[in-house]
Design goal:
single chain; alpha+beta; Ribosomal Protein S8, Chain: A, domain 1; 2 domains; 4 helices; 28% helix; 12% strand
Length: 176
């Protein structure tokens, strides 16, 4: 696409835009003349976002289990220690039930909790999820029990398939 010069009205509008824009990067900037526009190939290194410092944090849900655990879960070769069923609950009561159920599972040193969320309501496509199932990921991440959760995986069909999740709890350190 060939570049063209701006008309007087376009240039006036461009100048107003330049006056109102505040760059995201607060570092050194190269001032552009107000009567020109940057070329598509202009050096924009002065506007580059600085690299964020690396943070030491717990690995995400996909990196906390070894391969043997993942194989067992995928093949349905685990027996959940606790089942938390959220059928028939509203969003608020489902969150309360999940919180209480996880608290009890952690207190009883359970390793795998089966969370039954149910399938999407009939008439909605297979891609659509129910409201509770859609909220569960955020609930678990923000939960007071989040430090005790090693991983969350989809359940095997014999345990509910797409309508259920395995919540793998971290092994508690022995009090010796």
């Amino acid at each position: 696409m060939a570049e063209r010069d701006l008309s007087a009205d376009e240039q006036a509008l461009w100048n107003k835009v330049i006056e109102t824009v505040e760059p995201l990067d607060r570092g050194p900037q190269t001032d552009l003349p107000t009567n020109s526009k940057p070329s598509p190939r202009a050096d924009l290194s002065a506007y580059a976002v600085p690299k964020l410092p690396e943070r030491k944090s717990a690995p995400g849900p996909g990196k906390t289990l070894d391969a043997s655990w993942d194989r067992k879960l995928t093949r349905g070769r685990v027996d959940p220690d606790v089942t938390i069923d959220l059928h028939g609950h509203s969003l608020n009561s489902a969150y309360d039930r999940l919180d209480r159920g996880l608290g009890q599972a952690i207190a009883s040193h359970a390793r795998i909790a089966l969370l039954i969320t149910g399938h999407a309501p009939k008439g909605e496509g297979p891609v659509t999820r129910g409201k509770i199932r859609a909220a569960v990921g955020d609930w678990l991440a923000a939960s007071r029990h989040a430090p005790h959760i090693a991983a969350v995986r989809g359940a095997h069909p014999r345990h509910g398939g797409r309508g259920a999740l395995y919540i793998v709890l971290r092994r508690r350190a022995s009090a010796s």
